[in-house]
What we know:
- This protein has helices at 69-92, 105-130, and strands spanning 17-20, 23-26, 45-47, 50-52, 180-182, 185-187, 204-208, 227-233, 238-243, 249-253, 257-259.
- By secondary structure, it is α+β, with helices and mostly antiparallel strands.
- It starts with 16 loop residues before the first strand and ends with a strand.
- The protein is built from 2 helices and 11 strands.
- The chain has a 5-stranded antiparallel sheet with strand order 10-9-8-7-11, with no helix packed on it. A two-stranded antiparallel ribbon has the order 1-2.
- Helix content is 19%, strand content 18%.
- Strand 3 (45-47) and strand 4 (50-52) form a beta hairpin.
Amino acid sequence: MNPNCARCSKIVYPTEKVNCLDKFWHKACFHCETCKMTLNMKNYKGYEKKPYCNAHYPKQSFTMVADTPENLRLKQQSELQSQVRYKEEFEKNKGKGFSVVADTPELQRIKKTQDQISNIKYHEEFEKSRMGPSGGEGLEPERRDPQESSYRRPQEQQQPHHIPASTPVYQQPQQQPVAQSYGGYKEPAAPVSIQRSAPGGGGKRYRAVYDYSAADEDEVSFQDGDTIVNVQQIDDGWMYGTVERTGDTGMLPANYVEAI
Length: 260
């Protein structure tokens, strides 16, 4: 059975039927409620199950709510609750301005590196102050490898070196220069360089693992890979030995070498 048109209430046959807004319409009856412009399924807008064109579609407006005493009271109560909650949160988080950072292995490595750099700078400042104008005048400034900072260990703070009274220090006796005479004229003798010789006895052999530049007259310089022979332990931080490559004998830091 054919339905009736929602506009004219006449029978709608299938050839002219429009099914929209839960109703059936003739194609000619499916027009705007205001301007009577014929609409189709693409350009209509429905409002309360009635078709409208885009220009005459009813504008929805919001109703104004009166500022009654009850509404004012509710508004004031909401603001008070908001302020109370904000104050509670503030008191709870007071003193927690810094977020807790997990102590990850990467942060531990960075902290350890910073401690090493701090120890190295402190040691360098100590050496500079010790070799001031009174004690280091005329001496060549200490030269250090720029890569040395990455090799040092945290516990490498070098203790002031000293030689115990019980440890003998072997040095080659100084030879007096001999002046040569030519027919009554004596030529001044050339200065003889004094080289420290290795202490007697069978000491241990060590190999240098870092470069080191001597910071004092009784120390020896060496490079990574050098062999130090006839090594004698003086204290926890210093040794006494001979660099096999150069033949120099003197003090050297114990944490710069390893036993062979």
